[in-house]
């Protein structure tokens, strides 16, 4: 990393560091690693850092998860206005179908991130999606308008525990009001139905700390599930990163 800082972190594209993790093993890493910066995203269901090394703290984040039942339509849990968007998208001739077009998926994801001013490495993303799409529990969808223009797409992957994660998505802006939003609703509904039919028990939206996006996810019946981001920063990097990366420090009680 920059300026000689060594980091041990959850990969930027990852949702978390996996299931079946050993908290004792993570604790040992925190105690013995010489990395100046350690940032590890734990899966939902872990809480508290009692007995963990000094100068280790946790940031509270969350994801949103919808329970799925094989043989039941997840769209029945949606609010009326989202089901209405789904039906209108179908009436307008929009179609959701599987795709293996990695370049298209990268372009969609990059377009969404650039609109929000979020930095993103397209080359690394393409390599990751290419590898992910080789996995049997990963599938990607695109939504095409009646005009033949693709406006939405996403990659959905398993995590080894009967959960389908909405890992990567994006949209191109459409000239027609509401068309992109309806395409996204069609995308999510199609993926959720496919996941339920494939035997997944949960649909994980991957989490977003953007309040607007979080509210959008909640409207699909997705309950809030707390997660922890474990952070340890060795001296003197704490002084530098407190200024450069204040998001890595608790807002109210910052470490000395």
Give me a quick take on this structure.
This protein is of the alpha+beta class and 256 residues long. It contains 7 helices and 9 strands, in the order E-H-E-E-H-E-H-H-E-E-E-H-E-H-E-H.
> How much helix, percentage-wise, in residues?
25-40%
Strand content: 15-25%
What can be said about the biggest beta sheet?
9 strands, mixed
Summing up helix and strand content along with how strands pair, one would put the structural category as alpha+beta
- In N-to-C order, the SSE pattern is EHEEHEHHEEEHEHEH
Mean pLDDT: 87
Q: How many DSSP E strands?
A: 9
Measured between the Cα atoms of the first and last residue, the distance is 23 Å
The number of helical runs is 7
Low-confidence stretches: none
The Rg value, from CA coordinates, equals 20 Å
Overall 3D geometry?
globular
Strand order of the largest sheet: 1-2-9-3-8-7-6-5-4
What does this structure look like?
- By secondary structure, the protein is an alpha+beta fold.
- Helices cover 32% and strands 25% of the residues.
- It is built from seven helices and nine strands; from the N terminus they run βαββαβααβββαβαβα.
- It has helices at 23-32, 80-91, 102-115, 122-132, 179-197, 211-218, 237-244, and strands at 7-9, 37-41, 56-67, 95-98, 138-144, 150-158, 163-171, 202-204, 223-233.
- The chain has a nine-stranded mixed β-sheet with strand order 1-2-9-3-8-7-6-5-4, with helices on both faces.
- Helix 2 packs across helix 5 (179-197) and helix 3 packs across helix 4.
- It is globular.
């Amino acid at each position: 990393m920059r300026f000689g800082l060594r980091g041990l972190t959850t990969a930027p594209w990852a949702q978390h560091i996996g299931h079946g993790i050993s908290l004792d093993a993570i604790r040992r890493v925190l105690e013995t690693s010489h990395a100046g910066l350690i940032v590890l995203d734990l899966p939902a269901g872990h809480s508290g850092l009692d007995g963990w090394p000094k100068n280790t703290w946790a940031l509270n984040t969350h994801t949103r998860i919808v329970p799925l039942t094989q043989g039941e339509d997840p769209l029945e849990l949606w609010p009326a206005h989202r089901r209405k968007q789904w039906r209108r998208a179908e009436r307008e001739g929009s179609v959701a179908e599987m795709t293996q077009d990695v370049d298209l998926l990268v372009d969609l994801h990059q377009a969404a991130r650039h609109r929000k001013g979020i930095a993103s490495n397209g080359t690394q993303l393409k390599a990751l999606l290419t590898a992910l799409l080789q996995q049997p529990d990963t599938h990607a969808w695109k939504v095409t308008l009646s005009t033949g223009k693709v406006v939405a797409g996403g990659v959905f992957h398993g995590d080894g525990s009967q959960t389908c994660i909405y890992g990567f998505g994006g949209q191109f802006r459409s000239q027609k009001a509401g068309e992109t939003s309806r395409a996204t609703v069609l995308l999510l509904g199609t993926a959720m139905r496919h996941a339920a039919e494939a035997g997944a028990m949960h649909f994980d939206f991957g989490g977003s700390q953007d309040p607007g996006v979080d509210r959008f996810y909640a409207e699909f019946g997705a309950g809030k599930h707390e997660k922890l981001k474990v952070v340890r920063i060795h001296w003197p990097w704490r002084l530098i990163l407190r200024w450069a990366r204040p998001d890595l420090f608790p807002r109210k009680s910052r470490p000395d």
